[in-house]
């Protein structure tokens, strides 16, 4: 190498060093400036609750101005009925819509962002505009025992609806009448009655008639087992080769004429009914059936009647404005499960590759073919349900929002019939929830879920419904004594607090502390004695949130969850320390990953498992599960060949 070449090489190295140093310096300067003066986008938010018709124009302005002064940067707008006497402004009336428009305009003026829930109440998407045929549905059945040879001519009993999970008290007289009246036939099947009446265990859960709330009910399974072997009982299964489709023989009045072959036969009449899920806890004028979560046409009708109306009323968002209506939201899943829709059979055939018709008796716990075949059908049923919810409900809602410039946040847990990690992955902003320690339920698991979703899918913001509380909290909490739990949330991965709750104050300054969200807290609003002093605390929160949104996730362990639905990600106890409410990661950072995310997004670089969003992991831990689909096995094999380190027992 000659002298000029050496000088040129040294110059290149010095230039690279200068550029690197300059970039690091600029990054440090940017971080420092962002910490000292965090941007408005880093400010915390509040759940802004309105109590069934109790709204005022002056109160809306006063609420938002007080938030601005206190350092609140965003609100989640919801109206509920939690026992507070109804006010004069009917939900979604012309006057109500004008007040919502006023709230948006004022938020634009003040630089505060508004997120609107997917329907009236705090959970779900529905309302009085949802017709029974557009609602969440169950496949229901009745059975008739006959003996042949004979000519059967009789009325097959109309299958009754399944009881709503939260009981019939949630149904108004009108809704109850519609719930009972709605029925459409789906199929009639006949088969030789098995000698032994052995039923599938826990079939109501496996067939998605019910999914209990994981947070508030004891002994709810985080997932359903899928063993490799089943104990078969001879004589207990329906012979699939002898199932007869009698659907065409059923008359409109429910009568059937059929020449019964020799032997004992069971005739089953299958139909679809509303599952009894209603908007909750919705304002009285917003009470109605939950919309079908499998069908885009049904959801479009709901969207047009609620969010679509408000989009037309408010008008397009002005360019260059930081605040205003920017997001839509699906809160914690509390509307339960459905297992049917108009095109379910067609969708099942397309996705699973076989006709579900002969397996309809398995919905009721009857064994078709064999116990293994029936259990695998029910697994396919749940998988199809999950795919329809992800695509035709959450994914479709996200697409509708995007058409109007609105992003989507989702709390993907509780009565969720899908896998939490996959439902949350649909969101632009995954959300979790943590209750104030000692004043409610324990949902800290959802924070580990939300941070895992954000890291694996490259979402910079992890939001939390923060410090939710029951009636015993009673104004006991304030910034000073929630700081420890807030710091825990930051350390677990949350970087956006949305305090639950700021209750709208429609009655002016005369009454203190003003209207509340019934028994629920934590009371984080202008009715508090300390509210005027909270801005410094909220700036501290904004500084933390800004810094925690920078950079990329680098972790040690990636826990792969089992396949199937429903699924709640719970890391092994060996990965955690501390108590149940405030668990800390024990020594090593980790995230959970769904099989779907692994298959679609994972690759290997320098022996680390990496994802497009930038997250990387040293090793993958397989679930302690007996079964695995070929697609997932192939993906794991490819990661091994690429150099990934994988720990666990093969299925």
UniProtKB/TrEMBL annotation:
One GO MF term: hydrolase activity
Keyword Transferase: no
Keyword Hydrolase: yes
Record-linked CDD domains: A4_beta-galactosidase_middle_domain (cd03143)
Keywords assigned by UniProt, alphabetized: Hydrolase, Signal
Protein name, as recorded: Glycosyl hydrolase
